[in-house]
Amino acid sequence: MIKEYQDEGKSRNVDLEELSANFCAHVQEILSWEVRHRPDRVKETELWLIESNECIGTVRIRHELNNNLVNIGGHIGYGIRPSRRGRGYGKIILKLALDECKKMGILKVLITCSPDNIASKKIIEYNGGLLENEIYAKLDGKTRRTLRYWIYL
Fold first, then answer.
1. What are the chain's domains?
2. What is the pLDDT of residues 35-84, one digit of tens each?
3. DSSP-derived pairing of the beta strands 44-51 and 54-62
4. Alpha carbons 89 and 86: distance in angstroms, whole number
5. Which of 17, 68, 89, 121 has its CA 20 to 30 A from that of 132?
6. Integer angstrom CA distances of residue 152 from 15, 40, 90, 149
7. pTM
């Protein structure tokens, strides 16, 4: 999955040989991120969608919003591996994430996406997303157009 993202030009800063050799260490590193919590970050839960021992996608649920996430990012960020896109997995992974949000007590969920990301727009709207607005927000020094959707659970 990571190689597919790297081939697409969306680098996941992971050494594939290292990951293959020591996958358990990679999982432990993910689990330790909360311990290394930085003041500009919020607590998040990462979940994986697995089918037949293959990782189809990942989703991160941010437990709260900070000033940056209110504009770009929101409560949920998800991705489906390139070779599995267009098969409904995006709808599934977002639905599962929303179920987890409900269990966590996050009942008003913000999800953002680029206006150019037609697939994400459809996935968010399919799962009940109501478009609040389109904004221009800075991320990494660049101004980006962003759609802000709310889902009420």
1. 33-152 (3.40.630.30)
2. 456 666 788 898 988 899 888 888 999 999 998 899 999 999 999 988 89
3. antiparallel
4. 8
5. 89
6. 39, 26, 19, 10
7. 0.80
